[in-house]
Amino acid sequence: MLNFDYHNPTRIAFGQGRIADLATLVPAQAKVLILVGGASAEKTGTLAEVRTALGARTHATFSGIEPNPSYETAMQAVAQIRREGFDFLLAVGGGSVIDAVKFIAAAVPFADGDPWAILEKHGRNVASALPFGTVLTLPATGSEMNNGAVITHRAKAAKLAFSSAHCFPVFSVLDPTKTYTLPPQQLANGVVDAFVHTVEQYLTYPVNALVQDRFAEGLLHTLIEVGPRLLAAPEPVYDDRANLVWAATTALNGFVGAGVPQDWATHMIGHELTATFHIDHARTLAVVLPALLNERRAAKREKLLQYGQRIWGISSGTEDERIDAAIERTRDFFERMGIATRLSAYGVGADAIDGLVAQLQAHGMTRLGEQREITPEVSRRILQAAL
Amino acid sequence: MLNFDYHNPTRIAFGQGRIADLATLVPAQAKVLILVGGASAEKTGTLAEVRTALGARTHATFSGIEPNPSYETAMQAVAQIRREGFDFLLAVGGGSVIDAVKFIAAAVPFADGDPWAILEKHGRNVASALPFGTVLTLPATGSEMNNGAVITHRAKAAKLAFSSAHCFPVFSVLDPTKTYTLPPQQLANGVVDAFVHTVEQYLTYPVNALVQDRFAEGLLHTLIEVGPRLLAAPEPVYDDRANLVWAATTALNGFVGAGVPQDWATHMIGHELTATFHIDHARTLAVVLPALLNERRAAKREKLLQYGQRIWGISSGTEDERIDAAIERTRDFFERMGIATRLSAYGVGADAIDGLVAQLQAHGMTRLGEQREITPEVSRRILQAAL
């Protein structure tokens, strides 16, 4: 096992009806800016519940945070917060809104020029942040219980990540019934996003981290069990939603990844696909992962075999056949979730690859993966294999 | 899944050499009281490492906290802290030292008479506590990453538990090499303690909490894999120690038990055995658990079958035969760890049962278990079956 630090102070209020707890979770004297994406939080009544729970606290609402949240929109919120003096932020939405709020929380007190520098330095220059909480409506990214965020600079077509010890949510309210209005493709995105988060902290090389491996495998089993059921159910089933929410949260709250090597190359290559072609984040992961696992099969051999055996019950055949089968079962799972795993399905052809590789280089993504062996040339082969 | 709250702000510094991190983990201006058990922390050099890391900070050492730490000893530390004005406590040891430090931390500022009231009210009357960190040398109880403690009042022969949001360690240093000097029976105690903690949050009734079940099963698999290897190894193996430490910590940091029913009856009945007969805590659990599972087989039927199947691979026979086999495998595992599972092995006979049941009643332990169905009469049957 590798040495590690683990610290996650986010308070979780989980379950049906927990939005009412905002009455005690938000500081009594706070001046609150609620931040949301589109109109759905208003339409579904979630915002009304939130406002009721906030009671007599002064509050206003900032709406319009887009999927793959942009620096440009976030900076409008920063300006409003500075101008009007809000001292507590409340993200109501999914990973995009929460990621934007993390950046906004760090950007408001940022004193060192343009806050885009926070992304350029991956958060190392964040000295403080406004406190914020979240009300999760879309399970997927795990952002509700970690200190990381991904922001897109539209003018620069750049999608960069940052994290900071100052950017944990103070609390997150996770009410599974808030997922009831999600369309099937967003549920599928959530399942695949959580699945790939787990894989990226698990399918590397063995370091005898038995607890972490078992936890990762437990999340994968849960997502494989619940995913197809979520799509097939004619009406939402509470426990299935609850299991999706908690699996997605725990897939990226630092627990599965403590003390083990990590390989975020799938995310990094996927970010370029989103930045250039606006493909849903989870879908980029479903495209990149099978190709990446195949390309990196030698470096990941032992864990691929363990994954095949423990997750998919693959125990016969040569090692290479078992690895082939494990990758194929992974691809098949994504496809069964209604998510295409080939670039061609998204209208992206071979002519796009030069540009994508150039963007990876421009963003410093030149030595990715747990062994830092995924050079731009390896990324090129992965993208070609994903066509 | 049941609604739940989860909040665990303890910072973990895990790995070989991490005691040096006390230099930054402990506040620079702190006046530190180090608290230890016997002479071993001094003898092994751990205390020297701790003092070096504390550097120029004022510090002193309080030693003599016993296994099953007593109110009486803890109150001596409370008097010293009040007298000499320490403002940060550092527990160096196992669960006994850490539990004592939690009580001491809460007792120092306690303004409402005799701090024993903290135990009598199970912590509900704790309004604040001194900040404290821990350096773990004995993996077992998980106390290093939770807010609970168990204290024995010798004069009253009472062993009671309390917990408080104010009693999380600020940090815990988990260096697996610090377990290298432990005798085999303490390693065995650690494995069994962590195993039973996990079972008590898992073997109840199903609530469709897939993630929690998988995590619990992952811990049990880890302990079953690592336990016998720890006893057999001629020299300590780092990764085995690391896996024991992390499994024991995660077995009781709130994660496995979030959103599921819990059954702490084994602990409560075991506490009386320790209070009356001074049997090691883990050994009381190994005695009570098999008898309790058998007594409660109807209420726990579905989870016992799941446990038998997923943990021990038991899939043939009638349901009752499978449950018998699962309980027998559990007992056998404890025995293989060198831990006797019958009261007779500890010199406790049928004549002791009246007194033990009376103690349970005196301590209010009259409706134990996830269904609150373990009355004193049921506890009596469990103890009789454990003879």
UniProtKB/TrEMBL annotation, chains A, B:
Which InterPro entries would you find in this protein's record? Answer: ADH_Fe/GldA (IPR001670), ADH_Fe_C (IPR056798), ADH_Fe_CS (IPR018211), BDH-like (IPR044731)
MF annotations from Gene Ontology: alcohol dehydrogenase (NADP+) activity; butanol dehydrogenase (NAD+) activity; metal ion binding; methylglyoxal reductase (NADPH) (acetol producing) activity
Q: Does the keyword Transmembrane apply?
A: no
**Fe-containing alcohol dehydrogenase-like C-terminal domain: from which residue to which, for each copy?**
188-383
Q: Which SUPFAM superfamilies match?
A: Dehydroquinate synthase-like
Origin: domain of life: Bacteria
The name of this protein is NADP-dependent alcohol dehydrogenase
Q: Which organism is it from?
A: Simplicispira metamorpha
